[in-house]
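--- STAGE predict ---
source: upstream dedup step, 1 unique chain passed
mode: sequence only
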Amino acid sequence: MNPKELLSFFQSTSTVIVVVAFGLYLLKIFLEKRIEGIAGRFEEIAKASLQIKSEIRQEERGELVAFRVAVEKWEDFLQTMVFDYTMSAPSASDIALLYKEDKTLYLDVKIAVVKVGIYLRDKELEQQLMGAVMMLRKTYYPIINEPMPRLIDIQMRLKAIEFKQAAFEKSAYTDLSFALTEKDREDNATLQKLMTDAMQRFSENLLKEYRGIAEQIGALKESMNKYIYAPIKKAAIDED
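--- STAGE serialize ---
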């Protein structure tokens, strides 16, 4: 190969190398942009997943708070219903209304449990919520049901005395057929004493059991708070 041909060869070869190198450079830029685009899309997907997961967590928190409020209302009613019944005037005492209110409040608790169960992915916590509800029923209902038959009977007997007293007052204290007799006064004092004794036993039984109730409710609150305020560690919806 003569010098002229060799020069021509190198010149042609250099051009090919330059073209190839330039092509590789363009490919590198394209791939980098492509990778950046894919990484950007992954970042957008992660942000979207995190937003969805945050919204789900907010729903979970809302339902857990609603459950706790429903339990608090129901428990407060269970603690006071016997007192409320005895503090009512005999003519105004209505055990059917109390049982109806208990049914309504307990239904609210059951609905709250169902809603929590829809959102929760923590089977252990869900079981703990149900256990707390069943524990409240198992503890409170026997304590309430023990004095209620006697209290209903006392209120019915006091109602007859109350009726006579009201009729006597309505007659401007002129119709002596409605005036309370000595026996009526003795019966009233006896019934009031029986009611006081029944309430004292109820209070003692409630206080005896309440420490265990408070401890379990306290543990339930702690478990709920840990779940409610737990940080979201990963964006993926199906991960913790």
